[in-house]
Amino acid sequence: MSDITNTNLGGQDESLHDSVPVTGMYKDWFLDYASYVILERAVPAIEDGLKPVQRRILHAMKEMDDGRFNKVANIIGQSMQYHPHGDASIGDAIVNLGQKDLLIETQGNWGDVRTGDRAAASRYIEARLSKFALEVVFNPQTTEWQLSYDGRKREPVTLPVKFPLLLAQGVEGIAVGLSTKILPHNFIELLEGSIEILKGNKTNILPDFNLGGLADFSEYNEGLRGGKVKVRAKIEEEDSKTLLIKEIPYGTTTDSLIDSILKANDKGKIKIKKVVDNTAKDVEIQVHLAAGVSPDVTIDALYAFTDCEVSISPNACVIVDEKPVFMSVNQILEYNTKQTKALLKRELEIRKAELMEKLLFSSLEKIFIENKIYRDIEECTTWEGVLEAIDKGLDPYKPDFYREITQEDLVRLTEIRIKRISKFDAFKADELMKRLQEELKEVNYNLKHLTEFAIKYFENLLNKYGKGRERKTEIRAFDTIQATVVAANNAKLYVNRTDGFVGYGLKKDEFVCDCSDLDDIIVIRKDGVCMVSKIQEKNFMGKDILYVGVFRKGDERMVYNLIYLDGTSGRAMVKRFQVLGVTRDKEYDLTKGTKGSKVLYLTANSNGEAEIVTVYLTQGAKARVKVFDFDFATIEIKGRGAGGNILTKYPIRKIQLKMEGASTLGGLDIYYDPVVGRLNTDQRGKLIGNFFGEDRILVCYKSGDYELTNFELTNRYEPSDVLFIEKFDPEKVISAVYYDGVGKNFIVKRFLIETTTMNKKFNFITDHRQSYLKLISTEKQPQVIATVLKGKTEEEVEYDLDMLVDVKGWKAIGNKLSTHPIKELKLIEPVLKKEEAKNEESESTSGNEDELEIGSTIDLSPKNEDDEQLGLF
Question: Would you give the end-to-end CA distance of the chain in angstroms?
Answer without folding.
Answer: 99
